[in-house]
Amino acid sequence: MYYLKRDKKDEELGHGFNMFHNLDKTMVLQEARMFNETPVNAKKCALVLTKILYIVNQSEPIGIREATECFFATTKLFQSKEPLLRRMVYLVIKDLAPLAQDVIIVTSSLTKDMTGREDLYRGPAIRTLCSITDHTMMQAIERYMKQAIVDKNHSVASAALTSSMHLCKHQGLEIVKRWVNEIQEAINSDNVMVQYLALGLLYQVKKSDRLAISKLFSKFCKGSLRSPYAYILLIRITCQLIAEDEYNNANSSGPYFDFLESCLRHKSEAVVFEAASALISVPSRKDRSAPAVAVLQLFCGSGNAATRFAAVKALNAVAMKKPSLLSSCNAELESMITDSNRTVSTLAITTLLKIGSESCIDRLMKQISTYISEISDPFKITIVEAIRSLCLKFPRKHSIMMNFLSSMLRDEGGYEYKRAIVNTIIAIIQEIPEAKETGLAHLCEFIEDCEHSVLAVKILHLLGKEGCKTPQPTKYIRYIYNRVILEAPAVRAAAVSALAKFALYCEDLRGSVKVLLERCLMDQDDEVRDRATYYLRLLDTLDGGGEDNVQGVENSNRVKRIHSYIDNETHISAACLEKSLLHYLSDDHSKIEPFDFDSVPIEAEEIIPAASMGDDEMVKFKRSRGAETEGTFGEDMAQSGEAFGTGRSSAKEDAVSRESLYMEQLSKIAAFSTLGPLFKSCQPVYLTEEETEYVVKCTKHMFTHYVVFQFDINNTLTDQVLESASIEMVPGQEQFEVIKRIPAKKILPAGFSDTLKTPYSGKVGHKVVGDIAEAEEREGLETSYSCVRMPKEEILVTCTFNNIMKFKVKEYDASTGEISETAYEDEYTLEDIELNVCDSMKAITKHNFSVSWEELGPENELEDSFVLSNVKTLHDAIIKLIQYLGMSPCDSSDKVSESKNLHTLYLSGIYRGNHDILARIKIVAMPETGVTINMLVRSSDPSASEVLITAMG
Questions:
Q1: Closest residue by Cα to residue 599 from 681, 663, 677
Q2: Distant-in-sequence, close-in-space partners of 756: CB < 8 Å, separation ≥ 6
Q3: Which residues have CB under 8 Å from 837's CB, separation 6+?
Q4: Higher pLDDT, 906 or 777
Q5: What is the model's pTM?
Q6: How many CA atoms lie within 13 A of 616 on its CB side?
Q7: Could you say which of 97, 602, 742, 801 is the most buried, measured as most Cβ atoms within 10 Å of its Cβ?
Q8: Span 874-902, mean pLDDT?
Q9: How many other C-beta atoms are found inside a 10 Å radius of the C-beta of residue 593?
Q10: What is the Cα–Cα distance from 744 to 455, expressed in whole angstroms?
């Protein structure tokens, strides 16, 4: 590339780093006309070619005509013998080839350069020719490619091998397979890069043949390779073979591990590191990581910073899975804490935190404290996360680490750094009860001078939830009320909610807190005033005053309702509440009968067992469903009770809107209008494969005494019309009775509306009732329904239904659009439908399980013990219990340490009929016999408790 002198004026304007920032495409294409001049000015043409490359690679749109003209103008530069200009021509041709037309015409010029005597041209010509030539025309240059692969010039051979790899990926694999002999000959080259590329190409050709890959390994594992790059590639191929053996439960991985261990003695550090990384990462029935750890330990003392970084990074990965293997590496890792490379020192610290013993925590914290102020925020966050794991591992040392975290809170740092520390302290408080008061005290000091409103809101929510349960709740009220005086509106609103919880749970402080709330009635922000008014009214009602203390309402129910309001545990669907209120106001009985709040459907929560996934997986799981991830403003506002509990994730909003639509749809069907309020709509399940001729999807709608099965039927055939399609359900238990079936009157074939050019805009295979013109107006009657009456015995809620779809078939001629008048009956067998206990349950979280447990009382309490013989660990038991019962874990009881074999799981939910139900399950893991559980259930209805115990039995 020619040196391009920067313009002084551009430097003064700040554009000296990029002389092409203001290029005009039209001007550059006009400059390309100089390519037609004779003689060619190589220096100016190279500059124009550079501009063309810049425009193309900046994704600026270039028309086909412009690209074609520029392409053929560029080909005229083949007359120049200037080497650098010729190489620029090759680059431009490759970039313009996908945009221009008739580019194949330049093949003869490239072939001439490819077979010429000038080695400087041959390699780039090969790359360019293979990139523009269609694979169907490769036979014309196949002979030249074979010669180039075994060429004595290493650059030519490398270019041919690289181009062949690209051909394998673009439908040229069959052609390249004919070059196997030449590729194997290239592997014997004395050039390290040629040998590496030849081995890679040979693997690409044979990778679909497991036996051929095994032979390839056997041939080259005995030391015939001289290239360290080829060795690294062979190690990666070996890892893939081991993974396949483990997946297929084969026992033939012995030679592969022997090869990896032999590579630990290779003279190249890169090969040794690759082999060590492979040994610690590949799955194996027998742990063979010890030799790799020993090698990485030696690398920690290397004089090369890159080698030290690679070693400590690999050891950090080992520490997450097998920390016991690194017990001998403490001295090397401690010496790396003061490494001049900050990345190396940070990795050394985090590794030590993961493998450190309880006795060395004090010394480790002192070493980190002298160093922590010198590193950047991302590295500090990594250290904070490691401290969190260490604190949960050694809970008796929580005071030392909490003091260290509080000192980090007082240091300078950005939002992400402060957020990581706050989340770590909250996690420690939740997992270690002894650390609660210390952690809350540190957080109270932090919000006194916190510049991030989101973190202040999150901490205030925690203080309202946990502070009122401490022995001395009064010391937190001062910190909370200070926020009402000094902070932004969002923080003041969160503080009001936190104060209300103190008034709820601390009766001796209720009068003082109400005085503080009354002062908030004069706040400038309407949200703060509304919250204060709302909570004061509830507290007055709780004390026995106010207009809501209506005679005839039981005191216990009133207290329970107020608790749910202040604790934000109403779980009412806002969309359904709005519809219910509008319906109530439009009814003449609204002046006689009071509004029944219990008739509004309750919003269930999405169950995500924490025991089933790590933090990273949890974030991905939430994002895949559109949910807010931890630490975002939406979640923090929702945790603080922002907007009176309406701050929910988009996933919940979608679920609520879906359920409200189902409720409205079913209410329009006369046969279902008398079933009562809809309790729950389950997630749809497929009763057929998605590729079959008829695709049927079932959604279960749960009512108090009935179940409505909604069947969405998709006709994927193009020559049949289905009529009167209904699902005949045969219950496995005679107590379940099918009382009503509503068929889909007409199910049109796939593409029917497109064929007739009708205004119908439904999906392919859409179901309609009646004429096509009425399809869009009558979408509510498109599916088939079956209504099942639940048994009179309330405890029987599980059943299996066998299903057969029965329908009439009429032939349809797609060419004429005519439907046959004659019909014949047919049937189609579907998968069984399972009705489980989780279908009759809504997952609802109780923010204070112990208080809710005491409120229900022992009246409807049942207890029993069970053995889960097919479950071996606490993690698996927790996941299976949550999924089977359909209840929500409370107080983070779904999190369990791997070292424990005894755990208590708290579950809450609402049973069909809007009955609260709680379960306290003690789980004991016994590897010999499975998992033993003792379940204690309380509910507001005796039959609900019996259902849960019976379902487990």
A1: 677
A2: 772, 817
A3: 797, 798, 884, 885, 886, 947, 948, 951
A4: 906
A5: 0.61
A6: 1
A7: 801
A8: 83
A9: 9
A10: 54
**DSSP states along 20-69:** TTT--HHHHHHHGGGGG-SS--HHHHHHHHHHHHHHHHTT----HHHHHH
Q: How far apart are CA 46 and CA 32, in angstroms?
A: 10
| DSSP conformation letters of 373-391 | GGS-HHHHHHHHHHHHHHH
Neighbouring C-beta atoms of residue 139, cutoff 10 Å: 10
Question: Do the strands 767-768 and 744-747 form a parallel or antiparallel pair, or are they unpaired?
Answer: antiparallel
Find where tokens 């007082």 sit: 410
Strand 784-789, strand 706-715: pairing: antiparallel
Q: Which two tokens stand for residue 571?
A: 């779980």
Closest to 688 measured CA to CA, from 784, 829, 836, 825 = 829
DSSP 687-717: SS-TTSSEEEEEEEEE-SSEEEEEEEEEE--
d(CA 777, CA 268): 74
Average model confidence (pLDDT) across the chain: 79
Angstrom distance (rounded) from CA 445 to CA 848: 25
The helix (run of H) or strand (run of E) holding residue 535 is helix 526-542
Q: Are 710 and 783 in contact (CB under 8 A)?
A: yes
Task: Name the pairing type of β-strands 833-835 and 799-813.
Answer: antiparallel
Contact indicator for 155, 123 with CB cutoff of 8 Å: yes
| Measured torsion, CA atoms of residues 611, 617, 622, 628, in degrees rounded to the nearest 10 | 100
Contact present, 196 and 230 (Cβ < 8 Å): yes
Question: What is the per-residue burial (b if ≥16 Cβ within 10 Å, else e) of 821-858?
Answer: eebeeeebebeebebbbbbbbbbbbbbbbeebbebbee
Give the model's confidence band at 288: pLDDT under 50 very low, under 70 low, under 90 confident, else very high: confident
574 DSSP β-pair partners = none
Domains defined for the chain, CATH in brackets: 568-663 (no CATH), 668-835 (2.60.40.1480), 840-952 (3.30.310.10)
